[in-house]
Specification:
The chain has 116 residues and is of the alpha+beta class. It has two helices and six strands, in the order E-E-H-E-E-E-E-H.
Length: 116
Amino acid sequence: MVRAAAFCLAAAVCLGLTGCMESAPVKAADGAAEWLSMATEQYAVDNTATETCNGQEFTVITYTYTSETNPYAWGISAFGTYGNYAVSVELSCREGFGDDALETLENFLEHCHYAA
């Protein structure tokens, strides 16, 4: 898994990618589904929706963190696939995050370049 993070005062973005060689599209879909399942077990999910960004379909969840020690209060994540890659993007927000989280996540996803 490759993880990249961009930090600001009120939010953090994490990108997760897993490449699969055997039965690539099926394994990638399984990987994205596994990440989504882990997220629904870890977070108190408020909403689930399907969004299309930059031609790619994602399952998007919004949630609150249940851990008292987490510096972030809530978040929004997108789970999907591109070819033989499972993709996960998480935007974790502090209480004072004043922007629209879905718009911020969509803006990030709309500007991703997909090349295999």
